[in-house]
Structures are given as structure tokens and as C-alpha cells.
User: Fold this.
Amino acid sequence: MNQLNKILILFCLSFIFSKTLIPTNGSSIILNKDKKEYIYYHFKKDGLQFNDLGEGYSNSDSVRIKFFIRAVTPSESKGKEDFKIKLKLNDKSSRTLRYIKPKSKLNIKGKYGRVPTQPGIWFVDMLASEFQNIKITGNKNIIVRSQISKINRNKYSSIGLNSINKESKYIIETKRAKGESKSSYWYKLSSKKNEYQFEVEGPTSIRIFTRLGNPSLNLDENNYTLFVKEDGLDIGTYSFNSDASNISYLKTSKEKVGKWKTCWINVPKGKHYYTVRRGDLSNKNKPIYLKVKQYDK
Assistant:
């Protein structure tokens, strides 16, 4: 099974109730194959703007916004297409995303001599109350499709997972009511070479918790990403932005940490191995702390 099909299957399993997120500008274009059609949007001069999540979300809902990003290239072109976009969240934190993708087998309805590439994937996980707007800019040959899904896991119980590779854990203390505190154990990602592997028996769901070490007062300096692989295949790049927590800190050094941010992954039936490593950071000297929990009904 190739990587693209793997991503699409995981997407269907995880977000059956997803809805299309429609930009407030941009012109639509239809991709099709085998009687299936997918609506994408061309960039206008000022890019694509998303100002509304749509109906059905309360401020306390956790949501995932997933972007499918493709370039349109001449059908006779050979090799892979190198393209990039700039994504800006809430007029504050921005990130440049680069993809190198081969041509796909989809067609562009009504256009001959032009074909789309395979998609680059990008996730944004956040509370609905945190959303103000998302703006995407880039070259005119780029098209984008976006979907939004509600994440609701309150009915699940959880257990913490240990990494396959034996590594040290760090204690983060969180102040509670009446002067009490709660300790939790986290792994530390200090460089791109540092990674953790977890063994999971599906079908189930896992949740990856993250905290940024020593976050800045400037939110633009608190952007970070995680790369996640399943059985050696890339399944997603997850983007986070966090301000400092007022109640949590590293126990040994009293170092401040960011508020926790998470992403969810549905695990197919059978035994699977997940690799987690850090991606880009606004400040490369900051560590990322993480822990993984498995959720079962």
C-alpha cells in the first residue's frame, strides 16, 4: 500500500464526520477521477482567507483543520514539483511550508495539459474559541482544499505509553487547588535527531501531548512542529503554538513550560509502531516535552 493511500485511509477512519472548510475568497476548481470529485480553491492575489469555522462548534470544542495542498503543473513535466506556501494563524504566528511532490493521477475538470501534484498535508489542532482566521499565501499555481472535524474523546479511558527505546523522563509539576500539585512524566525532544518510538495495538486511538520548554512572551517565537510516522511511513506534520503556562513548570530546574497542545491519531487493527520527532521551531534552542496516551472505550 503506497503512502498516499495510507494517509487517505487514516483520514477516513479518524474523521468520518468532517466538513469542508470554505474560504471567504478564491475561485474553485474541481479535481476528479473514477466519478469522484474534489473541490479545491485557487489563490487570489492576496491568497486564501478562512474567517469562519461554520456552524455546529462551541467555544469548548477541540477541532482539527486539515489542509490538502497541491501544485498544478504541465502534464508533460517530469520529476517532482517543489512548491511552498505561507500559513498565518490569527494574524500572529506564521509558518512557511515546503513540499516536493510527484504528479497525481487526478484530472482537472475542464482543463487539459495541466495536472495536480500529490497533496502536501498540514494539520492545525486547536480549541474553537482560539480560532480567529487563517490566511494562506503562495504561488498562483497552488490549490488548496480544507476540512474541519470535531475531536471528542470524553467517552474514552486512557493509559500512558512508554517508548520502546528506554529514555529518561522529566517531571512537570502543575499547581492544583488548595496549594496541592500534580506530577506528570514527559519525554524530551531536544533536537531533530532525537526521536521516540511507541508500540500500539489497534484498533484504538492515541493522543500525543506536547509542551514547549521555556516559551517566549512573544507568541511568534513559540511555533513548533512534530513529525509522526506509522510503521515507517509519514502520516502527518502537526503544528502548534503555545503561550506560557502560569501553573506548570519543570520540577528540577523550575523552567517554565507552555500550555499543553495535542494531536489525535486513529490506530488501525493490528500492531503498529509510531515514531515521533521534532520538526521546525521558531527558536531551535527550545526543547519540546511530550507524552503519549492510548485511549480505549
